[in-house]
Write a structure and sequence with these properties.
This protein is α/β, with parallel strands linked by helices. The protein has helices at residues 58-63, 138-154, 166-169, 183-192; strands at 12-13, 18-19, 23-24, 30-31, 41-47, 87-89, 95-97, 104-105, 112-113, 116-117, 123-129, 163-165. It has one domain (12-192): Lysozyme-like (3-Layer(aba) Sandwich). β9 (112-113) and β10 form a beta hairpin. The longest helix has 17 residues, at 138-154.
């Protein structure tokens, strides 16, 4: 059962772009957004390192540029990539922040949303620890809804109607967060919060 309704609101400081209560593991893989661009999209991703395994230091290591290629055979292809997300929600519901929300994280790659290319420029990328096929957990949905609520307050240019999956902005190239992600459940949590 989600503790979403009983949890106190999460706060994102729009001046610093940091989420109070999130573990901060700041990534060097970021830069400024283009001048005049507003943040108006949230992109949801799914990630597990190694694939299908949860916990461990590897997601932090990937997003901070320190993933050792020899620690697992699947890491050879991705070690050395310069990628990041704004935040990760672990299976436990713990939130880790890698990039301040006002800055550009490198999460979307080649992408477009409703005909508009380069989604990194105008989006916030949130990773969920999981796979396309395995259901995401109660704690993850609760914390995701809380984080989205905080982002909607901090960045009024965002709206609940502009939340997409990585698969939506990079179809054919990406499949996450996958069929295991329950979009109706997320919408229900946001609706109950008045969003």
């Amino acid at each position: 059962m989600s503790t979403h309704s009983a949890a106190k609101p999460l706060h994102v400081d729009p001046a610093t772009g940091l989420a109070a209560g999130a573990r901060q593991v700041l990534s060097p893989h970021l830069d400024e957004r283009p001048s005049g661009v507003t943040i108006d999209l949230i992109v949801l991703h799914g990630i597990s390192l190694p694939p299908g395994e949860f916990g461990g230091p590897w997601i932090d290591r990937l997003f901070t540029g320190g993933l050792p290629a020899d620690a697992h055979p699947s890491f050879r292809e991705i070690a050395g990539q310069r990628v990041s997300a704004h935040a990760l929600i672990r299976r436990t519901g713990a939130i880790v922040q890698y990039v301040p929300f006002g800055l550009r994280a490198w999460h979307a790659g080649a992408s477009q949303y409703r005909g508009r290319p380069a989604c990194n420029d105008f989006s916030i990328g949130i990773e969920l620890e999981g796979t396309d096929e395995e259901p995401y957990g109660d704690a993850q949905y609760g914390e995701l809804a809380r984080l989205i609520e905080a982002l909607l307050i901090a960045y009024p240019t965002l709206s609940p109607e502009r939340i997409a999956g990585h698969s939506d902005i990079a179809p054919g190239r990406k499949t996450d967060p996958g069929p295991a992600f329950d979009w109706d459940r997320l919408r229900g949590l946001l609706a109950r919060a008045g969003r």
